[in-house]
Amino acid sequence: xxxxxxxxxxxxxxxxxxxxxxxxxxxxxxxxxAFVANEQTPFAIVLGCSDARVPAELIFDQGLGDLFVIRxxxxxxAPSQVGSVEFAAERFGTRLVVVLGHTDCGAIQAxxxxxxxxxxxxxxxxxxxxxxIRPSVEALLDTExxxxxxxxxxxAVRANVRVxxxxxxxxxxxxxxxxESESLVVVGAEYSLxxxxxxxxxxxx
Length: 205
Ligand SMILES: [Zn+2]
Fold this sequence. Notes:
alpha/beta; binds zinc ion
């Protein structure tokens, strides 16, 4: 299995291809499907948002078998997400975990609105997502950012990614051990809906 640095380089190269409009041809071919049918060796684990505009395989120009992807609104870390990351890291020896937020995230926006008491009534299930994002972004409302909606949203996305990455680093004995003894690396990144670019802004080795 390739190490975290190599995996990161593959993602960065793939994202450059995506931004440049150059796609690999063999991402979902019949030959490739046959090749991975009996075994998967994903080189990166991606915890990303469910937003329809941010499919990890496309924005990193990767194919069948390359990425182990967990998607949930707001790329939050709840027990089942931690379990999924643990599973892939242990089972497949994958050494890079990416927490991938994105600009203009609806889950982040909904959380900010609920904190500013502008939110719509929702369900307890949606609340369970907002409740996980709230602690990451709450403090931002005590700063000058509260007067600048765009800047606030931008900072909130990154704060939520940072907290999620730290939860993965410290909220699991399995992952903690893999970080200490097997060079597992958790990085935080933000995808721009406008440019298509992924900025790895946190924890890069
Ligand atoms: Zn989102």
